[in-house]
Every structure is written in structure tokens, then in C-alpha cells.
Specification:
The chain is mostly beta strands. The protein contains two helices and 30 strands.
Length: 372
Amino acid sequence: MKRILYIVTLAAITACSQPPVFDINDFGAIPDGVTDCTAAINAAIESCHGSGGGRVLIPSGEYLTSTIRLLPGVDLHLDEGAVILGSADPETYSSYIPDHDMTRYDSGGNSANANNTTDKRWQRALILAVKADGASISGSGVIDGRHVVDTLGEEGMRGPHTVTIAETSGFTMSGITIKRAANYAVLGYALEDSHFTGLHIMEGWDGIHIRGARRVSVESCRFETGDDSIAGGYWEDMSIRDCDINSSCNGLRLIMPACRLDVSRCRFHGPGVYPHRTSGEARRKNMLFAVSIEPGGWGAAPGELKELYFHDLEIENVNIPFSTSVREGCVARDLTVSDVRATGVYGAMTPVYCWNDNGFETVSISGFSISR
């Protein structure tokens, strides 16, 4: 009997274990910032997904595109020097419209800031990851929403969101810079076990805005936003840590309830590097609240707030460090604030300022220093 000796090198084993890479240039993308690369990028994503998942590579260069649809198991990876440039035409973008009732996440009523899950115009996005379990966006490149103006959009000017992730578990986003978002830089709906790490978000409106989260973390991110840096609600087991938060509005804004929220080792500081986008000709840059807890402030948001823990924070040059406004339909308890140093406060000299408030049942404040 002949014996056949198979010699398998470590390099061969490693090569076999690596997920496949799909270079968008192989699908016809041209990195000149002028050629529409939408079809090429989506074709690469579809091929990657059809092969069982892997990486779609965005090499160095500027790629003009409208809506990219990220699919389950696909990592959209932006190399250093890679730029995804959103189309200047708001009519070229597609929308996320849920196939079931998600109106609990609507806000704004009939105002100029109405945010509805059934509004196709408001739900437009540059990157859509819908029911995209295990998908990711990684690398060190840039996603540029170029401040697309839509005169029929929110406030008569807001265009598509930059990245929308919806009804998805196991999503990760790391290392990317998002700039000039035409509305929210990152909008999330009903996310589970998802993580945002090492992002740099510049200009635009809200930075990371999530409505519906379970076991979601935001870590080591840098915000320089024209509106709220982090916002949303209906969060469970949410953590925000080691972030640098600069805003021309609010640092963290809860417009819906949350349970078991832990915010730690963050720096909140004003004035904003970039001006508030919709404050008129004055284009204010002052930072209002480091933390604003106002469930129901943008429309009915019934539910329970409990076990909110803010600790080991630095707050600088804001109007008021903490503000609460708990509206009808909400029950609030267990607010804990500890080891906070607030300097340059130019509004009310109080650790927690309450207005139009049903109040928290229990509040604990310790180790809080505040000064002008």
C-alpha cells in the first residue's frame, strides 16, 4: 500500500481560514469621485453574501455612490485613504421602511422635526443595513455625507442619514470617520448585541442615534457634532464609555426611556467645534446640556426609566451638566450620578436641573464638584 505524505504549511492553513475578499474595483468601481459606483459596490456586497460572507474592500480613492445595501455576514472595509462620497442628489437614495409596526420609535408629531418610520423621505440613507445580522463596517477610511440638502426634508433642509442599521443583531462598526452627515451620522432601530468603537463623527446633526437597543455599546468614540452627539432611547443594557463628546447642542439626549444605562469615563465639553446646523444665521456653537434626560419631550414615549448610572465624567463649558424632564406616561427611578467634575458651567449651578418634570423616585449624587 502506498502512503501519500501531505505537507500543509501554516501559511496555507491561514490562507484557507481567511474569509474571501471582494475588491469593488474588480466589479467596476472607479475611484475618481465622479463616476457613480453604486452598482459596483452593491454587486460586490451581493457576491460576498452569496459566497457565505466575507469582506468587501473599498481601496484608497474617492467613490461616488448613492444607497449601499449592506447584507448579513458582510464586512464593508474602508482602507486608509478610502472615501465613500454620498451623491449630491437626495432623490437618488433609498429608504428603510419596516414591514411591521414600529411606530413606538416615532417622534416629533406633526412638527418640523417629525421622525416617522413610515416616512420614506426621512428614512433615506447612504448605507442601509437592514436585518443584516453579523454585518460590519471597519477600517480607517471616511464616509462623507457631504451635507446633502433636501428642501422637502426635515426642517426644510435635512437630507439622508449616513448609516442606518435596523432590526439587526451582532453589528459592529469600528475605526471609521463619518463627516458632513446630511441628517444623522448613524441611525439605529431595534439593535441587539452591537458595538460602535473608535469612530470619529464630525459635523452634521446627531452622531449616534439609536431607537431600540439591547446590549449595545459605544466605546472610545470621538464626537464633534452640530447636534446631539448620542441620542435615542428604549435602551436596555446600554453602555457608553471612554468617549470624547463635543456638541453644539447636547452631549447625550434620551428622548425615550432606558433601563440599565451605564455611562462612564467620558469627557463632555463645549463649545462645539462645528456650529448647530439649524439655528439660523447666528449658527450657535454653545453646548446646552452634557446629559439631557427627557423621555416624551419629542412626542409620547411611555415606559420605565431605571438604573441609570453616570460616573467618572469630566464636563467642561456647558450650560447645565444634567437636565431631566420626565413626561406623562413615563416612570423614572434609580438615577445615580457619581464622581463628576464640572467646570465652566454658565447656567444653573446645580448637579441635576429638573424642569417640567414628574421626577425620579430615587436620585443618588456623590462626588460631584461644580464651578464656573
